[in-house]
Design a protein that fits this description.
single chain, alpha+beta, 5-stranded antiparallel sheet, 18 strands, flat
């Protein structure tokens, strides 16, 4: 134990007075005074604790008042201070009592500062919890001390109060002569050496035995001990000499304990209460020792409702729950969500904000936004604003090196599509400005519009993959979710549920649970998160407990909790513990002088009877309305105006409005509202201090006048040209005006101008990726068109309806978009006016889209037949097109030049052929090859070089590859397809069109000639681009092909399972039916190969192409499962489906030949067929297919061809040739990284060697096969291999 330096308390007080009397800098002097106060309170706490220990262990009832007074003499105590001096003096580390001998050591916890004097901002001192350790030489307490209640501690408290008064005032210290204390023979040197003495026992003193008449305000005090009055020193209240009211109250209530029957109601009944109050002073010096007396008197701000008040009442467990969730996110990288529900004013926002400091302490980033019921911003833009703000926060809190690395990663992630991110989050340009490799500029970003909502979701996902990590976890807080919409919560869901990259984000949302029904979108949002395995927690906030309300009242009036408990009980009953209701109720009491600050007593006083008699409703709006109604008319008008904009209003708008005659001096009046405590101002924005204040201000406007009020306000902004400054100002203006659309505008001079403003706002919203607002604005514009607008406003009607169709498509409102575009088609006077509407109508693959494309092409002069062509007619068109290519050299095709003058008809024909080439592959597969042939024919005939040539050539080349029986056709198709890719480099091709070209190339051609893993990677990139630009159809096709290529290339099955589960949910979320159907097929196959069963009903697959893929996938799983008869049956079914559709996908044909061939050899080996037909079929039909495939790509198909040849030779008893081909197959599979085919080759080779009697070689090969299947993740095959090896 650190003894430190010992000093008599009297000497310590003298030293403290001298130290504070020195002339110093004022700021330092204030800190020195505060430090002195803290040390004195620490000593007071220690002395009280020593006396309490004495009371618990001795029968002090038997002691005389003189003996008790002697125990509490200043000379009976010694202070021990630390050996090391701080900037503000020596720390007190212990206090000792001399007689009886007791030693108290001050102990601090592991998480407590050992130093009070950690000064923050040169003003604030940190509090701490003090623990004590008392050393006593006495083994046993006095007899008959049965419990702490045995002793009456009133006199002890009284004398302690006198001692503490002397400690804090240091009055008459020179005249306070030391009393003689019993000691041993040693001289006292400041170190406690006294032994225990036997204190004389006296009869118990009654209340009448001790009477004291004392006036704390300054009158003479007398003390009687039954023998007459005795003069005592005049006592001054501590708050009269600069100490806090709380400290003064503690000392006064201790002294009052000696007044007997005349003691005050606030006097202490025991030392334990005094110790508790002294401990509170030390724990929270800012509340009770250094409170601002001026602030205490301000009725407008009893309790700060802003960020200045960091006290959290009664929500500790909930705060810990949020911090625990954040810690999990930061450690695991897995995103989580927390939803906090409760009534308005229950402290939801304050609870979440209380953890911000802890999040930031571990390098977490916090972004906060708030939904608003009447805000000019759409809910989606609130979410986007949060992520945009995150960019600024990252730039602010990152080092230059960290920021540079982060921007480099963003550029790598987005590549040429970085402008897509810059469009969604403009502040990212500021981040990227530090990166030399960034070529994007603000002007370049302004040229690109995000296509739709899906693209926005995917952009945020990719952004969060880069900027969030376990070293930089992010907390997103969205307040008032009851005003969110599906689009805004969908953006949050997209980030939280991202599978490819962990977003490492904790989302916290709050909502008023009494304002949402069971069908509210919040609960659908939670269900979606659950489906995507995002851990979601719910916190429900009720009212505070009575103790918490007491703490709140104690804070409000800077009063010790025990002194305001009776008032708190009344407040609790009337407010049900709602924190904001408590606050406003207290303010109303102060406003009406029921609670008021007494300058004479320097504390808050109240009339408890009047408080109890208050008749209030359970609605805080009642109190706020009363407060607002008491304000001047000009202030009420200003608050009404501000409330129309939501929770906040920008200073720039206020300044503009202040120049209008109806809103003169608006800014200065709002400044007064800030001073009155109704609003806050941060330099750029005025903000209501609470939602309920805004609601109360808004309710000042009569319900039936609200729309007119908004409209007049908007027109005033319009006349003041408020919207010229920024897009946000335009949105704010038009939102106010639209309250009167169309009823207040029809027939007025402003009708057309407001319609055009709405159109402009819609364009700007699309530009900012705010699709829901864009749709709302353009619908308002359309509503302002005249009834005969298609006659009197023809071109305006086309413009507005086209924008309506685009906005509706971007929001996913397909039926609404179609209705708007159909209106153009019906009312348009010529094809030129309708062509853009037709182009939007065919954007989604469907039979109707195919018919529309054909219809438009016919209108443009193309002679296209119906969809019921015979196969020979389709083949004839393909042959004709092929001959045209044969008569054109590669050089001639590549030298095609652009025309000097744009031929709009030719370009439109190519545009709709391009649409038809994509949608027919899904919606009309029988006619797809024909349409591609006609597309290519038109391009060769027109000899016009344009951006549509690559898709025409690649698409037709892919169709030729379907004629797999002739290897020359494959090579011709490959040649034409490569020409198409070469043309991509000639034109500045739109990325969307480029990925359509890549889709066709890698779907049919690339998979035959390039490594299949590279094809899968290209399809993944195509998926990402499709999602990036909102083309979910393109994205769905690409990702389905990517997953298919990964399955047949031997990607780990368990990883594939997780991946496919995610894409199934994604397909469900975005209504991607084709993608969902294909993913279900892949999922069933992967589960079977793993050895698991599909839980739940299997949906029926419709469509010939899906059935073909289903056949080849089931052939694969049946082959590895050992169901060879099933493979043979599926092979015949696949052949029939291909004949029916006149379409045979090359990779499907190769896979079917391989699976069927291996199944037939396996059946032949097991069953021993007597007839050679199966072997002839293999040699004459299947092996040639694989041989031709091997010529195209040894990487992809050499293993398959070698396995089937080896099996054939094994059955033909050509042992050496078989073993050679088995070795080639194993080597080729390893080289191509086809782990599943390597396992199959080892397994079949092992069966061959086992059949020929070489069990050692067979066992070795079986072991290799088992390892391969373990790597692949197929428990099904692992179990099979284990069984075979046990047989050997």
């Amino acid at each position: 134990m650190n003894e430190g330096m010992a000093m008599p308390l009297r000497h310590w007080i003298t030293h403290d007075v001298q130290e504070r009397a020195m002339d110093r800098d004022r700021g330092y002097q204030v800190n020195l005074e505060n430090a002195s106060t803290l040390r004195k309170v620490t000593i007071s706490f220690a002395i009280a604790t020593l006396l309490r220990h004495l009371s618990l262990n001795f029968q002090i009832m038997k002691y005389s008042s003189e003996e008790l007074e002697r125990l509490c003499q200043i000379d009976n105590f010694v202070v021990r201070i630390s050996n090391e001096q701080t900037d503000l003096g020596w720390e007190v580390i212990g206090v000792d009592m001399i007689n009886p001998q007791l030693q108290l050591q001050i102990v601090t916890g592991a998480y407590s500062s050992c130093n009070f004097f950690d000064v923050v901002n040169d003003q604030e001192f940190t509090g701490r919890t003090i623990m004590t350790n008392i050393n006593s030489p006495y083994a046993e307490p006095d007899e008959m001390v049965g419990s702490p209640t045995t002793n009456d501690e009133s006199l002890l408290c009284h004398f302690l109060g006198l001692l503490l008064h002397g400690l804090f005032t240091a009055e008459d210290l020179a005249r306070m002569k030391p009393k003689a204390l019993p000691k041993d023979d040693s001289d006292y040197e400041g170190i406690p050496l006294a032994k225990k003495i036997s204190l004389p026992s006296f009869s118990q003193l009654s209340g009448n035995d001790f009477f004291r008449e004392i006036s704390i305000s300054g009158s003479n005090s007398k003390i009687c001990h039954g023998e007459g009055p005795v003069e005592v020193n005049l006592l001054r209240a501590l708050n009269s000499i600069g100490y806090s009211n709380s400290l003064s109250q503690v000392v006064m209530n201790l002294v009052d304990c000696g007044l007997g029957l005349f003691r005050s109601a606030d006097a202490y009944t025991c030392l334990e209460m005094a110790i508790s109050d002294l401990s509170l002073l030390l724990e929270e010096p800012g509340r009770f020792l250094f409170e601002d007396l001026y602030l205490s008197q301000k009725s407008e701000r009893i309790i700060s409702s802003g960020k200045g008040n960091n006290r959290l009442y009664g929500r500790t467990a909930e705060a810990h729950s949020i911090t625990d969730s954040f810690c999990r996110v930061a450690s695991t990288g897995e995103s989580e969500a927390i939803l906090v529900g409760g009534f308005s004013g229950c402290g939801k926002t304050r609870l979440v904000q209380s953890v911000f400091e802890a999040v930031e302490a571990v390098d977490g980033l916090v972004v906060e936004q708030k939904f608003d019921g009447v805000s000019t911003l759409s809910p989606s833009s609130v979410v986007m604003s949060a992520f945009n703000e995150l960019c600024l926060l990252i730039a602010k809190k990152s080092t230059p090196q960290e920021l540079h690395a982060l921007c480099e990663n963003l550029i790598v992630e987005f590549g040429a599509n970085f402008h897509v991110l810059a469009r969604a989050l403009p502040n990212v340009l500021g981040m990227a400005s530090c990166c030399a490799s960034s070529q994007i500029s603000k002007n370049e970003a302004d040229t690109f519009n995000l296509a739709n909502y899906s693209s926005l979701c995917f952009t945020l996902q990719r952004f969060m993959r880069v900027i969030s990590s376990t070293s930089r976890p992010i907390m997103l807080f969205l307040d008032d979710l009851q005003w969110a919409d599906p689009a805004s919560l969908g953006l949050v869901h997209a980030v939280l549920s991202d599978m490819k990259g962990k977003s490492c984000m904790l989302f916290v949302g709050t909502y008023r649970d009494n304002e949402v029904g069971p069908d509210h979108i919040i609960f659908g949002f939670v269900n979606m998160l659950s489906q995507f395995n995002v851990l979601t927690s719910n916190i429900r906030l009720d009212g505070l407990t009575e103790n918490d309300v007491n703490s709140m009242v104690s804070d409000a009036f800077r009063t010790l909790p025990r002194l305001c408990r009776s008032l708190s009980q009344v407040v609790f009953r009337k407010t049900n513990g709602n924190p904001y209701f408590v606050l406003e109720f207290l303010r109303s009491l102060v406003h009406r002088d029921i609670v008021k600050f007494s300058l004479r007593e320097r504390r808050w006083t109240w009339d408890e009877a009047r408080v109890s008699a208050e008749n209030i409703t359970d609605n805080v709006l009642y109190l706020l309305s009363n407060a607002l109604n008491s304000l001047s008319e000009s202030t009420q008008a200003a608050l009404k105006c501000a409330s129309c904009f939501g929770i906040k209003i920008e200073k720039s708008i206020v300044q503009k409005l202040s120049g209008h005659s109806n809103y003169i001096n608006l800014q200065s009046i709002l400044d007064d509202a800030v001073n009155g405590g109704f609003m806050d101002f941060d330099g750029t924005t005025y903000r209501f201090v609470h939602d309920k204040v805004r609601e109360a201000a808004y309710d000042l406007i009569k319900a039936d006048c609200k729309d007119q009020y908004h409209f007049d306000l908007g027109m005033a902004m319009h006349s003041s040209c408020v919207y010229e400054d920024s897009s946000d100002a335009l949105f704010a203006t038009i939102e106010q005006i639209n309250h009167g659309v169309p009823s207040l505008l029809i027939g007025t001079a402003h009708q057309n101008a407001v319609a055009e403003l709405n159109y402009e706002a819609s364009l700007k919203s699309m530009h900012c990726a705010n699709f829901t607002s864009a749709l709302d604005y353009i619908k308002a514009a359309v509503s302002l068109l005249a009834d005969d607008s298609w006659t009197t406003q023809y071109f305006l009607s086309i413009k507005y309806h086209l924008q309506l169709g685009q906005s509706a498509f971007s929001c996913g409102s397909i039926s609404e978009a179609k209705a708007a575009l159909d209106k153009i088609v019906d009312e348009g006077k010529c094809l030129e006016d309708k062509i853009d509407a037709y182009a939007l109508l065919v954007a989604t693959p469907s039979h109707e889209s195919v018919r529309t494309c054909v219809h438009v092409l016919r209108l443009l002069g193309e002679e296209l037949p119906n969809e019921d062509l015979k196969p020979y007619q389709i083949n004839s068109a393909i042959s004709k097109t092929k001959e045209m290519f044969e008569h054109e050299s590669d050089e001639a095709v590549l030298r095609m030049t652009k025309p000097h003058h744009n031929n709009e008809r030719i370009e439109n024909i190519m545009k709709f052929y391009s649409h038809l080439s994509v949608i027919s592959w899904i919606a009309a597969p029988k006619m797809h090859a024909f349409y591609m042939a006609r597309f290519a024919q038109f391009c060769l005939t027109s000899k016009v070089a344009c951006t549509y040539l690559p898709s025409a050539f690649v698409g037709f080349g892919a169709c030729l590859c379907n004629m797999l029986t002739l290897s020359s056709e494959i090579l011709v198709g490959y040649r034409i397809g490569k020409m198409g890719l070469m043309l991509l480099n000639r034109f500045e091709l739109d990325k969307g069109k480029a990925w359509q070209v890549y889709l066709a190339y890698y779907r049919e051609l690339g998979v035959l000639f390039e490594p299949i893993q590279a094809c899968a990677d290209m399809h993944r990139r195509g998926y990402e681009f499709g999602m990036q630009v909102g083309n979910t159809s393109l994205a769905g096709l690409h990702i389905c092909l990517a997953v298919h290529r990964e399955i047949i290339s031997g990607t780990n099955l368990h990883l594939l399972k997780v991946e496919i589960e995610f894409y199934l949910k994604l397909a469900q979320q975005h209504a991607m039916t084709a993608m969902k159907a294909l993913m279900q097929i892949y999922y069933q196959n992967v589960l079977t190969l793993i050895g698991e069963q599909l839980i739940g009903p299997v949906e029926q697959i419709h469509g010939t192409q899906c059935e073909e893929i289903e056949c080849t996938q089931e052939m694969m799983s049946s082959l590895f499962s050992g169901h060879f008869d099933r493979v043979n049956y599926l092979s015949r079914k696949w052949e029939a489906l291909c004949n029916k559709s006149n379409h045979k996908e090359p990779i499907g044909a190769i896979s079917a030949a391989f699976y069927n061939g291996v199944a037939m050899t396996s059946m032949y080996r097991v069953k021993g067929f007597k007839f050679p037909q199966p072997l002839r079929y293999i040699s004459q039909r299947l092996l040639p297919v694989l041989a031709k495939a091997e010529e195209c790509s040894q990487w992809n198909f050499k293993t398959k061809a070698s396995i089937l040849r080896a099996e054939y030779f094994s059955l033909m008893a050509k042992k050496d040739k078989a073993e050679y081909e088995y070795a080639i197959a194993i080597s080729s599979a390893r080289s191509s990284k086809f782990i599943h085919e390597e396992g199959m080759a080892c397994e079949l080779a092992g069966l061959h060697y086992k059949h020929n009697g070489d069990k050692t070689k067979a066992l070795d090969l079986f072991c290799q096969a088992k390892k391969c299947y373990e790597t692949w993740g197929s428990q099904l095959k692992i179990d099979q291999m284990s069984s075979v090896m046990e047989g050997i």
